[in-house]
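Researcher: We're teaching a course module on how sequence relates to structure. For the next exercise, students receive a sequence and then see the predicted structure as C-alpha cells, so they can try to spot secondary structure elements on their own. Here is the exercise chain.
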Amino acid sequence: MSLYQSLQQREATNSPIRIGVIGAGTFGSMFLAQAKRTPGMRLVGIAELDLAKATQTCQEIGFPEEAIAYENSAGAINDSANKRKIVLTDNPEALIKAELDVIVESTGVAEAGAYHAWTAIEYGKHIVMVNIEADALLGQVLNKRAREKGVVYSLAYGDQPAIIEEMVDWARTIGVEVVCAGKGTHYQPKYHYSTPETVWDYFGFSEEQLSSGRYNAKMYNSFLDGTKSAIEMCALSNASGLVPQKNGLQFPPVGVRNLANVLKPMNDGGILEHSGTVEVVASEQRDGSPINDHLRWGVYVVFRVMTNHMRRFLSTHDFVKDTSGQYAAAFRPYHLIGLELGMSIAKVALRGEATGSANFFAADVPSVAKKDLKKGDILDGEGGYTVYGRLVRADESVAGSYLPIGLSRGAKLLRPVRQDSILTYQDVELDRSQLSYELRKTLEDDSKPLIKN
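Model: And here is the predicted structure for the students to work with:
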C-alpha cells in the first residue's frame, strides 16, 4: 500500500497521525500549510514561546480563529474541549506529553533541540528532527536512545540531507558505488567572514523585502558563511557513512553537466581525495561569473558504474556522465523545504522508517574564528559575528578536542584565538550544565569515529 493510500485509510477510519510541532518558524509554517491539505494527518498543537507569532502563522495558513485554542505553561493539551482544535502553547513539554504520535522539532537551537528530542523519545514519541544543528551535534546519541525506546528518530524530508540520503540509498540499492553526494549553494571564499550586518548586501534583498520582518539575519548568514552547508553535509555523512575529505568542503564551481567529470577521485582526473565522500558545489565561478547549469537549489549523487550493461546504457542515453563513461551523476534541481515534510511524518508513523538518521560518527562541525578573538569575548554561535562552522572528520575533531559549533553560543574565550583557527574546548568556558553538553561528551566518550584511510 502506498503512503498516500495508507493516509487515506487513516482518514477513513478516523485515526489520523497526531502531530505536534515545536517552533513556528519558516520550516514549521511550511509544513503546517501542507498538513492542512493532507488526509490522515491531524495537527494537535504548536509549541512556540512567541504565541503571537504562532497565532499569526496559523491565521496566514488558513486556520480560523475558532479552530485555535490556547494553553499557557500550566495547561493540559489533552483537554477534551479542545480535542478538535489546534492548541497553541508556550510550553513544549506540555505538547510532548500530549496524546500524539510524532513530534516535529524545528526550533533551530541545539540546546532546545536536544532537550525536546530527548524528552519526546523518553515519552515514546517519534521525532522528526528539522533541527539539523542539534542533529549534527548529537544525532548518534539521540538515534541510539530512540532505538532503545522503540521509536523512530528521523531527519526531515524537504531539508537537503534527507533528500540526498534517499538518493544515496537509491544508488547503493541498484548496485553502484557512491563516489560523492551533496548539494549546491551560493558561495565565495569571502562569505566565511560575513556577519548579520553584511549578509543582506550579498543576498541583494530589497528594503521592502527586509521590512516585512520575515528574514532572520543570523539564519541567512549561516547559509552564506558556509556553516549551514557544513552542518548539512555533517548530517548526511553521519546518516550515510560517507566520510568527509581531509580538507573538508572545497565548494568547487561546478555545473550539472560537469558533476561526474569533477567530483571523482584525483587518480581518475577529478578533485576528490577519495571515493565515498560529500561535497558542496558553488553556483558561480570565483570571479562571480554565473554557471548556466548551476545546482544552487538542488542536490546530487555521483556514482561509479560497475557493470558493462550500465556503461552501454549510459553511452546511448543523454545521461550526466564523465568523458570516460566510468562515472555518472543523478541530480534533483530543487528541494521544497517544509512543504515536503509530510514524507517524513508518513514514513515514520505508518512504516516505522526514518528518512535518514545518524547511524555513524563520520563527521563533525567545529567552530572557526571569523576574526581575531580576544580573551573574554563571548561567542555568538551559528550565523553570528565571531565564528563559522567547517566540516571535518569526526576522528580529527575528537583527537583535536575541537569545539562544536552547536556548543559555541554563549561560550567565553579564555585566551586569544587567531582568525581562521579552529577553536578547542580548552579555549573556552562553557555552561556544562546544558543537556547538549552532557550528551555531546557521552557521544565523544562512547562512540568510535568512522575512519577512512
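Model: If you want an answer key for the exercise: The chain has a mean pLDDT of 93. The first helix runs from residue 3 to 12.
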